[in-house]
Design brief:
By secondary structure, this protein is mostly helical. It has six helices and two strands. A two-stranded antiparallel sheet has the order 1-2. The longest helix is centred in the N-terminal third of the chain and has 18 residues.
Length: 133
């Protein structure tokens, strides 16, 4: 997440502060991609929710989104739009009162992990896929 959140810092610095408009499929996929980013950098404090199995947690959660009625091709298409789901994470963090502008990489990581802990296990698009210690 640290290297990805570094991109977030750049997006914040260059953004016009306009909130990203997403449909429900894009929002669901953004939640999964942001959860993946957060659990990678916030281990062991934040991890994937659910039981481990034969498939990876990411694949299992992707399949859950398909089972909920989201188009697999639309999910995959949005998955490739890194800037959009990163912008979603910035919007969500700013909605939670976290201001990323002017923070160092380490401060961004710490703020992101604190935020991940606070949304874990909630119905937030990213929090639904996470659990915290």
């Amino acid at each position: 997440m640290l290297r990805i959140l570094t991109v977030c810092i750049g997006l914040v610095a260059g953004s016009a502060a306009a909130a990203l408009e997403m449909n429900s499929t894009e929002k669901a996929m953004a939640g999964l991609m942001v959860a993946r980013m957060l659990q990678n950098d916030c281990k062991p404090d934040v991890t994937w929710a659910g039981q481990s199995g034969a498939t990876t947690f990411y694949a299992k959660n992707f399949n859950t989104l398909v089972a909920e009625g989201h188009s697999k091709s639309a999910l995959r298409k949005f998955e490739r739009h890194r800037t959009k789901w990163l912008q979603a994470s910035i919007d969500w963090m700013e909605d939670a009162g976290i201001k990323l502008a002017g923070l160092s990489r380490e401060q961004v990581r710490d703020a992101g992990c604190d935020w991940a802990s606070s949304i874990s296990g909630t119905n937030h698009p990213a929090g639904r896929f996470l659990k915290s210690k």
